[in-house]
Amino acid sequence: MKVSAWVTYLFLYLPLVIVVVFSFNDSKLNAEWVGFTTRWYSQLFANEKMLTAAGNSLLIALSASFLSTVLGTLAGMALHKHKVPFLSFLVLTPIAIPELLTGVSLVIFFVLVNQVLGILELGLFTILLSHVAFCIGFVAIVVKARMQGMDESLVEAARDLGATPFQAFRLVTLPVIRPGIIAGALMAFTLSIDDFVITFFTAGAGASTLPLEIYSMIKIAVTPEVNAVSSLLMLLTLVLIVIASRVSPGALRAND
């Protein structure tokens, strides 16, 4: 059992370790280790196109995670409390649909809206809308799962003691579902910042994000610069996980 567990861990994490190690390799080719260097990180921070793409990705990911967390939390609460016809279908369908189909349908929608109303020209804003639509379902599932373990009598007791609906939500419901909200926000951020398929269809000609820029770079070869930016993305993800675990220790745990 231990052997199979270690094999699984190696399969999952060894490629990530290799990417980090070779980001310090003093060679333009990733075929063999030549020596230690940090010049690829210096070149990365001097690459204006890469920095612009990274800034766009970070801005979109932060905005999409915030909006999808707010909307997904409301959707998750509605799914738990109300039996609205087709609500589950509308909220959860974007999760089940393949990203290729989602990207194609969204680009057709944006093009039609732009032709009829003259708005929603393909660019960063359409990428943001696409990511929000894609991430809401993931946040809703996590929040709904968290609310299923909540004792509703606590909210009723708060209302009986004179709390308004908003006070009952802020003082009773929110502390209970906060770990789910944080976990959903982290999931939305991660899905948004490294999404390629949907972004590829909805970006248009003038917009560039980090996944699109990396894709254009690896058409020729996987350079150490790509390894460097990938390592920084992994570091950012780890930092977010540590922050979430400190802010809400139960955010990354299963429901009690």
Q: What general outline do the C-alpha atoms trace?
A: globular
The helix count comes to: 11
CATH class: Mainly Alpha
CATH architecture: Orthogonal Bundle
Series of secondary-structure elements, N-terminal to C-terminal: HHHHHHHHHHH
CATH topology, anyone? MetI-like fold
Total beta strand runs: 0
| Unreliable segments of 5+ consecutive residues | none
Question: What oligomeric arrangement do these chains adopt?
Answer: single chain
pLDDT averaged residue by residue: 86
Computed structural class? mainly alpha
Radius of gyration: 22 Å
N- to C-terminal distance? 26 Å
Strand coverage percent: under 5%
Number of domains: 1
CATH level-4 homologous superfamily: MetI-like
Helix content: over 70%
Largest sheet: none
Organism: Crenobacter intestini
Protein name: ABC transporter permease
Subcellular location: Cell membrane
GO biological process, one term: transmembrane transport
Report on the structure:
This protein is an all-alpha fold. It has one domain: MetI-like (MetI-like fold). Helix content is 76%, strand content 0%. The chain is built from 11 helices and no strands. The protein has helices at 2-22, 39-46, 48-81, 87-96, 99-117, 124-148, 152-160, 165-193, 197-202, 210-218, 224-247. It is globular, with a radius of gyration of 22 Å. The model has no long low-confidence stretch (mean pLDDT 86). InterPro entries: Bact_Polyamine_Transport (IPR051789), MetI-like (IPR000515), MetI-like_sf (IPR035906). It comes from Crenobacter intestini. It is a multi-pass membrane protein. The chain crosses the membrane at residues 7-24, 58-79, 86-113, 119-143, 168-190, 196-214, 226-247. One of its GO terms (cellular component) is plasma membrane.
